């Protein structure tokens, strides 16, 4: 049995959740994903947490779903247990922003987990890929859906159909990754990015996350209407008055999340 599956450390409103299973490749076992979902739900409910950093080991963010657990599964087991859907779907219900700090392998479910995060920062060592095809399986946690949205159809097809992985620099050029930083700085960089988010009004940050995610779910017209309604709703916030007053008075705003 693993001694610990992940660690959580909170500093200045930012919790760093570090996947740290016994295997530094962090295979995403059911137990690890359950622990991750619990940690994310705790962070979402904790008023002392304003943003999340998700990271793995120096060797791997995560090398995919636990392939060994798939060996005994038949169709009925997978369907009836809602294998993967049962726990993984909870990650995208988190309302506070999640910044991924990826070192080493982000393969299969690991790449899919990174894509469920809101911002991906990559270490120079990061490798992204969807190698499932080589195992005779289809990606199961969004690889065929989120990857084309992130990198476009052609590169997504190349990665999913051949299993070819891409480097951090390629991932940044393709739009999967926001920034590439040296390995020993990536977690700190993610904490700084999350810290910059955490200084803003939390309800505004949460509304922006919801609106950007809505852009993947709706037509442009529907998305624009959703954004306009949120924009109008913002006039009911104290923090909106405070932010605008601070600008006009040439001072820093003091947000209260109201
Ligand atoms: C279970 C895994 C694993 C995984 C590695 N291991 N990846 N176990 N699930 N995804 C285990 C190996 O079996 C081995 O166990 C130990 O970790 C070390 O692995 P090595 O291969 O010896 O390490 P290395 O040579 O450094 O190679 C690293 C690697 C390689 C390139 C990342 O391990 C690899 O290709 N892993 C599989 C990557 C993959 O196919 N991912 C997609 C999985 S499917 P033992 O006991 O032999 O020491 C997927 C579907 C998603 O993610 C569906 C929805 C979530």
TrEMBL record:
GO biological process terms, semicolon-separated: fatty acid beta-oxidation
Keywords from the named record: Lyase
Taxonomy, superkingdom: Bacteria
Stored SUPFAM superfamilies: ClpP/crotonase
Entry keyword annotation includes Lyase: yes
Reactions this protein catalyses: a 4-saturated-(3S)-3-hydroxyacyl-CoA = a (3E)-enoyl-CoA + H2O; a (3S)-3-hydroxyacyl-CoA = a (2E)-enoyl-CoA + H2O
Enzyme kind, highest EC tier: lyase
EC number: 4.2.1.17
Cross-referenced InterPro entries: ClpP/crotonase-like_dom_sf (IPR029045), Enoyl-CoA_hyd/isom_CS (IPR018376), Enoyl-CoA_hydra/iso (IPR001753), Enoyl-CoA_hydra_C (IPR014748)
PANTHER family noted in UniProt: ENOYL-COA HYDRATASE, MITOCHONDRIAL, ENOYL-COA HYDRATASE-RELATED
Family assignment from sequence similarity: Belongs to the enoyl-CoA hydratase/isomerase family.
Protein name as annotated: enoyl-CoA hydratase
Annotated source species: Streptomyces brasiliensis
């Amino acid at each position: 049995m693993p001694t610990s599956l992940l660690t959580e450390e909170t500093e200045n409103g930012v919790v760093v959740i570090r996947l740290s299973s016994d295997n530094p490749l962090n295979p995403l076992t059911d137990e690890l994903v359950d622990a991750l979902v619990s940690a994310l739900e705790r962070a979402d409910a904790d008023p002392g947490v304003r943003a999340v950093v998700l990271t793995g080991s120096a060797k791997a963010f995560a090398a995919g779903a636990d392939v060994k657990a798939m060996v005994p599964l038949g169709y009925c087991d997978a369907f009836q247990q809602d294998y993967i859907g049962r726990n993984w779907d909870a990650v995208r219900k988190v309302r506070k922003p999640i910044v991924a700090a990826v070192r080493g392998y982000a393969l299969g479910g690991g790449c899919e987990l990174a894509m469920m995060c809101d911002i991906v920062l990559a270490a120079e060592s990061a490798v992204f890929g969807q190698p499932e095809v080589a195992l005779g399986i289809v990606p199961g946690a969004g690889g065929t859906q989120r990857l084309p949205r992130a990198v476009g159809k052609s590169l997504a097809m190349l990665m999913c159909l051949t299993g070819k992985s891409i480097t951090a620099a390629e991932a940044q050029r393709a739009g999967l990754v926001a920034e590439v930083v040296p390995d020993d700085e990536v977690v700190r960089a993610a904490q700084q990015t999350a810290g910059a988010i955490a200084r803003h009004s939390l309800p505004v940050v949460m509304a922006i996350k919801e609106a950007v995610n809505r852009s993947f779910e709706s037509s442009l017209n529907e998305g624009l209407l959703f954004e306009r309604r949120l924009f109008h709703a913002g006039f009911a916030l104290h923090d909106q008055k405070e932010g605008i007053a601070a600008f006009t008075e040439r001072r820093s705003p003091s947000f209260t999340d109201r």
